[in-house]
């Protein structure tokens, strides 16, 4: 017999395949274990950690035994406290904000810390059907045996209800309004009827739901007011200061670089500071010193995009340069992030380069690289 697919991809059992991106509960298992061991505060039923420990996991800290918990979210402590507390109540949590403000990131880490499982996820799109939130059927079994528990394919939300875990719904407002409304019964009655079986699944304690929605999508599908009332809304802001944003980018870039096996560069900080400064100035429509008004390009220029501009730059420096991140390595990425609509953004970028970047005496190399990239 020819080699089957499964045997050709099987590995020695002691060697787990290196996945491209581990789930938060796996990637940060050591921190979560240390927190659980140090945590002597009361935990809501089926929570892996107390609300205090969940907040510490997100915001970072040092435990009594010396374990350092890295900050996952950089931002106001109160926001995290309100988000965690909400999950311990009967209201669901809605994370709202402009693109790239870590809504998805925070939702994954909250689910990992609270339930030890961030995978019960529904990705919202204009085509998300009701089955993705309720349940579907294994049609072969349904036809052969008729409707039964075994033929039922539970959605991630249904599984979270049955197991008392945290469900996640990404991009809630992209889901058509009638499908969104499926959540109303789940969130208010904490039950999901299965008329085909004459049964219902009642949520057990520990179940809650985190939804994310993008500010810019507003108007795509408004949340109905009935559904909105089931949520506590927490708005995630853009990083307040340049230093905050630089530290977010630096931390994520070095984590991503390690997962891509890129060598740690001697110092990427200068370029990170410049990229973040450019992003913040263009976003705000005014230079950091408040003196020059600027036009803002059409792109969002989020922190997430700054992270990807710098990560791409590091890969360029590692593979085609001497490993040191230089202006030339980030210039092309920066151009791509700023110029989304060639008709208007190119002009805005050129104006910014000539009137602001050019005047900065310690930015000469940066100015030259950006000008060269724009001329290509
Ligand atoms: N305040 C912050 N603290 C820590 N990381 C942040 C912060 N803001 C952004 N990031 C980083 O930005 C990246 C992207 O965030 P994420 O994808 O969660 O954004 P989002 O708000 O879900 O965006 P979108 O609306 O496009 O879905 C993450 O890698 C995250 O680490
Ligand atoms: Mg997101």
Automatic annotation (TrEMBL):
Lineage: Bacteria, Bacillati, Actinomycetota, Actinomycetes, Kitasatosporales
MF annotations from Gene Ontology: ATP binding; ATP hydrolysis activity
Gene3D superfamilies: P-loop containing nucleotide triphosphate hydrolases
Organism: Streptacidiphilus pinicola
Ranges of residues in domain ATPase dynein-related AAA: 93-231
Cited SUPFAM superfamilies: P-loop containing nucleoside triphosphate hydrolases
Annotated protein name in UniProt: ATPase
Annotated Pfam families: AAA_5
Origin superkingdom: Bacteria
